[in-house]
Amino acid sequence: MKNTCLAIVLGVSAFASASAMAADVPFPHLETTGRGEVVVQPDMAVFSVNVVETKKTAVDAKLAVDQAVTKFIERLQAAGVNKKDINSANIALSAQYNYPKDHKPELVGFRANRNVEVTVHQLTKLNSYLDDALGDGINQINNIDLKVANTEKYQQQARQKAIENAKQVAASLAQGFGNKIDGVWQIDYNTNSQPMPYRRSNDAVMYSSMSKGAVDQSYTDNSIIIKDSVNVIFKLAEK
Question: What is the per-residue pLDDT for 112?
Fold first, then answer.
């Protein structure tokens, strides 16, 4: 195989940029996009809850929300959640008005709102933490994101599959046209690939209406697909 010059382009540019550059390549070549994916089981999760209270005064609303959040955090820590894995947002206060017909708006109270996000490193304990979230003052489980801890490991596996796919496609195309690959000219890699869950459970009503066994099954049945892709310009052998 002849020596060739290899250009590697890292970034978020579309393959159109590589195609534009390839147009100026002064020798026979072909362009392929290799794709790879790895399916893994989640081993951690992040969920968030909302605490909302409406009271006559702003002070009472804030106090009620703060007390509910404090009790929730205490329950989580008692269950083994590390403090660094609990993130409680600042409080949001807003005045609530009644708008009677043909009358001025009437102040009826104040609404306080806080969000608490919890990272769960042991997925087997997720349901018990969700049960803790359903204690006094917790109004809604907003979202449950299933994740995998060692994402980079699986991203590399998906990347290698994408590379092999690009090679296989290029070799097949070249062979089909009576030619063969004679090296790589340019690699254009999009670094924005993100893990994608097959299914996501994000409905608080769904959780509260299901039996514990059904909820357990709904999480263990989930899978995460991690994808990657690479765009490559191959040099064709000169006949």
Answer: 94
